[in-house]
Amino acid sequence: MTQFKKTFKKFRLQFPLQVMLLPGLIYMLIFCYIPIYGLLIAFKHYTVMDSFSSAEWVGLENFKIILNDPIFWDAVQNTLGISLLKLAIGFVIPIILAIMIYEVVNMKFKKVIQTITYLPHFLSWIILGGMLISWLSTNGLLNQILTSLNITHNHPNWLLDPDKYWLIAVLSDIWKSSGWGTILYLAAMARIDPNLYEAAKIDGANRLLQIRYITLPGIKNIISLNFLFTISGLLGSNLDQTLVLMNSQNRSKAEVINSYVYKMGVVQGDFSYATAVGLGVSVISLILLLIGNYVTKKLNDGQSIL
């Protein structure tokens, strides 16, 4: 009873803070927890004429269809290909960019660089996609630059070539997200004790050695956390980007799991199949998260980031 009184006393003292949590809790309850009940239709033959309870139970039939669907496996291949390229190329770029911004001494120049790199994040894929479609067209900016440099005189429409789509998707995603991705790293760098850098200078360490032995260890936990989120999202390629940049010519390399689920569920109305795909992806993402957490725990001397 004494413990209950202590807990109630803490709650009463923090009552204004507890009230501030209510909107977030209500939001999560309505949009995150209640919809979990809808996962039942992954095991049913559900149509818009049915309710969740009246739809015919088919067990694992939808999952069997998924396993034998070649279009789905093409989407899995494209998703993994694009996501792994983003991981290999795009994961380190925000770290490098954050270190470069942190090393800038002139504050005005630093603010200009941050503004320029942050700006694409605030533009929707509708805007950025329209820009890319224009730049990569037959008479677009890219072909004009290549022609003026005498690199090539051919004028292909780059987005119509399926073999080049993965690279376009990866580079455009890096362009949009790298600047915004530096925020956490810069915040972590701001917490590093400046005296460590002064001591390193006295010991004769140059800037590269200071980055290696002070800056990077100082942001190690944030790097590990972002790595976990990236690994767990390997099967979740950007739907907005895909819908904007995908066309009939590059569909074979552009179709990803999210766009396939959208097509099957929203466009064709096969809600059970789409839900089954989404449930399977969520389970695999959870497994990847646990594996990533295990790996980072080993690399951080047994300390878990989560």
Automatic annotation (TrEMBL):
Membrane topology classification: Multi-pass membrane protein
Subcellular location, record wording: Cell membrane
Membrane in keyword set: yes
Record key words, sorted: Cell membrane, Membrane, Transmembrane, Transmembrane helix, Transport
GO cellular component term, pick one: plasma membrane
Pfam families attached to this UniProt entry: BPD_transp_1
Tagged with keyword Transmembrane: yes
Residue intervals passing through the bilayer: 21-43, 84-105, 117-136, 165-190, 211-235, 271-291
SUPFAM superfamilies reported in the protein's UniProt record: MetI-like (SSF161098)
Domain ABC transmembrane type-1: 76-292
Family: Belongs to the binding-protein-dependent transport system permease family.
Name of the molecule in the record: Putative aldouronate transport system permease protein
Organism field: Facklamia miroungae
High-level lineage: Bacteria, Bacillati, Bacillota, Bacilli, Lactobacillales
